[in-house]
């Protein structure tokens, strides 16, 4: 069996010049592993607009493929049109199209309600120029009425013109396989790429998972709790768990893996090497 599937890398735009400089080094290190592309997140409401673009520009200038995330909450058709023009100018070919979440204190949701409307608008404005990635949720989006309603919303994004999808991270491989099965039964044929979150800190992972609705299985939670402040044990166990998860996904036919790096090269490099993806 050939286990060498493609993978991609996600960064967030750093808030400081030092962070920007550090990210260039991280990007160069990860580029040696041969990822398909680097995606760069976008603060909903446009809070990171300039920084996201700056990182995307730098990645493209270094000769790599970059995919800016673009969220539509709080946006207008004109502001999205401006973004598309900037992407075109930089040479971007791939966009991760999202609704995002309305930042606290921002009252006006703008002219788009859901990601399917953004995908539809991008297709209307630019035809097949961009490869459009959309988000999907094997464990169901936290605001969805239920799993079936969330699947129906995913199908809408696909029918609006999405090219591929990247999932929220998860640690239960069955949730991914069940989701892919349900999507195929609903007529979805685009690739469903697994989002993978390496584990550097259990405290941070716990906090983040609560807000995005990703489940940390009880057996993992109890094991991490037992490590307390022992960062080395957290790292070693986290690597083992995530390696096994990826191995199961690869054996089950996942088309590609997308690593949420949190701008750190170490764990993603170790995972890619352990999985033999280099
Ligand atoms: P949608 O697909 O619009 O779904 C949002 C909710 O509305 C869901 O509950 C869905 O079931 C429901 N829904 C969708 N369409 C309809 C419809 N037509 N009618 C009724 N209900 C509907 N956040 C950021 O701020 N910046 C980022 O860069 C970022 N990158 C991400 C990358 C990935 C791969 C993933 C998985 C998530 C990312 N997020 C990011 C988080 C994301 O913005 C949030 O999860 C957000 O709450 C939902 O965005 P979405 O595009 O999935 O929304």
From TrEMBL:
Pathway: Amino-acid biosynthesis; L-methionine biosynthesis via de novo pathway; One-carbon metabolism; tetrahydrofolate interconversion
Keywords: Amino-acid biosynthesis, FAD, Flavoprotein, Methionine biosynthesis, NAD, Oxidoreductase
GO molecular function, one term: methylenetetrahydrofolate reductase [NAD(P)H] activity
Gene3D superfamilies in alphabetical order: 3.20.20.220
Keyword Disulfide bond (UniProt): no
Catalytic reaction equation(s): (6S)-5-methyl-5,6,7,8-tetrahydrofolate + NAD(+) = (6R)-5,10-methylene-5,6,7,8-tetrahydrofolate + NADH + H(+)
Cofactor(s) recorded in Swiss-Prot or TrEMBL: FAD
EC numbers for this chain: 1.5.1.54
Source organism, top-level taxon: Bacteria
Class in the EC hierarchy, top level: oxidoreductase
Family: Belongs to the methylenetetrahydrofolate reductase family.
NCBIfam families the UniProt entry points to: fadh2
Name of this protein: Methylenetetrahydrofolate reductase
Organism whose genome encodes this protein: Uliginosibacterium silvisoli
Gene expressing this chain: metF
């Amino acid at each position: 069996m050939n286990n060498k599937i493609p993978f991609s890398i996600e960064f967030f735009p750093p808030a400081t010049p030092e962070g920007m400089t550090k990210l260039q080094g991280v990007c160069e290190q990860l580029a040696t592993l041969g990822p398909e592309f680097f995606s760069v997140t976008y603060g909903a409401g446009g809070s990171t607009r300039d920084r996201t673009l700056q990182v995307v520009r730098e990645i493209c200038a270094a000769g790599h493929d970059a995919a800016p995330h673009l969220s539509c909450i709080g946006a207008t058709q004109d502001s999205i049109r401006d973004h598309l023009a900037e992407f075109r100018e930089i040479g971007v070919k791939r966009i991760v199209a999202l609704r995002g979440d309305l930042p606290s204190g921002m009252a006006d949701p703008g002219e788009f309600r859901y990601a399917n409307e953004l995908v539809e608008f991008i297709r209307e404005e630019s035809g097949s120029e961009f490869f459009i990635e959309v988000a999907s949720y094997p464990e169901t989006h936290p605001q969805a009425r239920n799993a079936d309603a969330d699947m129906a919303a995913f199908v809408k994004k696909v029918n609006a013109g999405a090219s591929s999808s990247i999932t929220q991270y998860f640690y239960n491989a069955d949730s991914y396989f069940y989701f892919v099965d349900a999507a195929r039964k609903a007529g979805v044929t685009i690739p469903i790429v697994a989002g993978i979150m390496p584990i550097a800190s259990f405290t941070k992972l716990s906090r983040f998972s609560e807000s995005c609705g990703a489940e940390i299985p009880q057996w993992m939670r109890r094991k991490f709790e037992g490590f307390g402040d022992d960062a080395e044990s957290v790292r070693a166990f986290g690597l083992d768990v995530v390696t096994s998860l990826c191995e199961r996904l690869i054996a089950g036919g996942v088309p590609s893996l997308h690593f949420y790096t949190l701008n750190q090269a170490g764990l993603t490099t170790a995972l890619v090497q352990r999985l033999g993806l280099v």
